[in-house]
Amino acid sequence: MNLVIEFVVASLILLGAAFALLGSVGLARLPDFFTRLHGPTKATTLGVGAMVLASAVYFTATQQGFSLHEIAVMVFLFITAPVSAHLLAKAALHRSAPECSEEIDDAGK
Amino acid sequence: MLNFAIEIGFVLIGIAVLLNLWRLLRGPDITDRILALDTLNINAIALLVLFGIRAASSAYFEAALILAAMGFVATVALCKFLLRGDIIE
What we know:
The structure holds two protein chains of two kinds.
Chain A: H1 3-29, H2 33-62, H3 69-94
Chain B: H1 2-26, H2 30-55, H3 60-84
Helix pairs in contact in B: 1-2, 2-3
């Protein structure tokens, strides 16, 4: 396998794993449910997207032909992640989940 | 280089799975637990994809696709149950 392709696959794997870890740290550390919802739905989707892209590049390079069925996983995750996050937020609003009381001053004063 | 990156990826996602399990056990409300299960499912997909690269076999992607579909349906069903008290009305 080409050294450039190996470098691209390795850096995509590291990027994806770092983003997945970041999303889970956000899930574990943030103060209330809505901020916790914000963390993994973005970061983990991007992380798994980078990782699936890495495997698409790897199998396109090692096997003959163009490897497209990994892209199906990525498209499916990109479509379904906002839908499930929206439903989770609706369920939490329905149950009136407690919000974090810290107000952020947007004027910076 | 690629094997080293895959090992580091396994370690990072393993730590992420442990953090998800902590939130799943601790989570003050049931919505936190559903969110932790959803994130755990997505991290399991990442682990399967990494394992497929390491084993150099493309048979793991069907499993990843099925896991993605089942996880989405499970999350939607749990949220629907919380919202309406019923899944299929």
